[in-house]
Amino acid sequence: MSSIQFLGAAGTVTGSKFLLQAGRKKLLMDAGLFQGLKELRLRNWAAPPFSPSAVEAVVLSHAHIDHSGFLPRLARMGFRGKIYCTSGTADLLRVMLPDAASLQEEDAERANRKGYTRHKPALPLYTGEDAKKALKTLRPCAYESPIRVMEGCSALFRRAAHILGAASVELQLEESGRPEPFRLVYSGDLGRWDQPILRDPEFVPEADILLLESTYGDRTHAADPSSELARVVNESARRGGALLIPAFAVGRAQEVIWRLRQLQDQQRIPSLPVYLDSPMAIDVSDIYCRHTEEHDLDMKELMDKKSCPLCCLNQRFARTPDESKKINQVKGPVIIISSSGMATGGRILHHLEKRLPDPSTTVLLAGFQAAGTRGRRLQEGAKVLRMYGQEIPVRARVETIDGLSAHADQGDILRWLSGFKKPPRQTFVVHGEPRQAEGLSRVIAERLKWNVRPAVDGETVDLENRAGLT
Question: Could you tell me the domains of the chain?
């Protein structure tokens, strides 16, 4: 029997996990951490509905924590299989997973020290040692080169253009009596066309079953996010305060810096001090520059000129905790970029704690904010934000620019779907909140006449029951 079970990213944008069972073999597509709502975060601690030691392989679409951050927890619970991903993803994971473990340990230590925990003692979800165990099993793969990941199953990666190393994944399942393999395709997180730094998404010609992301499936991004970014920077500078930009250390931070640098070169914004307060984002920018096989033409040309496009004109780096704390003494106007992108943790919380009560502060939310995150609460107009066991008043101005998102919008997704030579037998819409998943499903059904519906959390789909797929 072959089946796929949705164990995350169904009805939500986090915790991406899809369990494939082919005969007695088990494979996990993505191993993401749940973020946001408490009921979702608690699932990170619950025993999964499968034995981690029985999983032979994990195939990753990309390195973002909501797709990879459960790997150390899997290793802690007995997973000893191999993790297959692109070379870019592997390099990012070597930075990201130890950092995620360090944050888990720091949060537990702080909660115990300050006493704002109901658990005695508070424990980390996983440790640095768990991250090391997971990293030992990485198997980097090239794009467009099938690789056997377990008996009877091969994987093929194609560029998705979401972040460095991001890929759509095609699993080819060998079946007796069939001349062609059964193709299960997962879009991963799709990126956008004609964006800076990375090459465009690559089309997939066919699939029997398609798992399709829908983060922005019901909307269209603003046409020119750089103009909006220039407006926010200039207004913040006139008000004389700090511009705080919560940004994921992988992908979002690099694009924000790219656009700020372009605006500076074009003299559309002043050359304010720009602090990149994230050791991981600093390291990741170096990784981006090294992976020239991922660069689009503009990035290649700038790198050939030895002019780093991932540095602003007046940029300062904060690697150590002391360097980060010193930013608290900096008066505006100033730009501070720090992770995490949805303010769920990381150094951005210290800057928010200090500067949210100041009416001259601006907070720029540069992408999707999941339900239950501090970023979403700010976006929805919260007057108070809870951090470190205390209530912080919100007097800052809050801005959102969806166009800076690295996610495809509805038009981009439909463009990617146009690459299929024929409709998949069934498309399951994943990695989106209900409104986005349902909206995208309706558009695909109406315009393309495909068999499509949102995936249901926890459901198992029988891949051998052909009638059940239509």
Answer: 2-219+406-469 (3.60.15.10), 225-404 (3.40.50.10890)
Of 37, 33, 28, give the one whose Cα is nearest residue 434: 37
Give the model confidence (pLDDT) of 311-365 as tens digits: 777 889 899 999 999 999 999 899 999 988 888 888 999 999 999 999 999 999 9
How many whole angstroms separate alpha carbon 443 and alpha carbon 410? 9
d(CA 267, CA 281): 25
Take residue 458 and report the two structure tokens written for it. Answer: 């926890």
C-alpha of 321 from chain center:
25
Residues in the chain: 470
Alpha-carbon distance of 239 to 304, in angstroms, equals 38
* Rounded mean pLDDT for each run of 10 residues along the chain, 470 residues in total: 94 96 94 92 93 97 95 96 97 94 84 71 91 97 96 96 96 82 96 90 97 94 86 96 92 89 92 92 89 83 68 84 93 92 88 95 89 92 90 95 86 97 97 96 98 97 66
Is the Cβ–Cβ distance between 110 and 102 less than 8 Å?
no
Other Cβ atoms less than 10 A from the Cβ of 435: the count is 12
The answer to whether 170 and 419 are in contact (CB under 8 A) is no
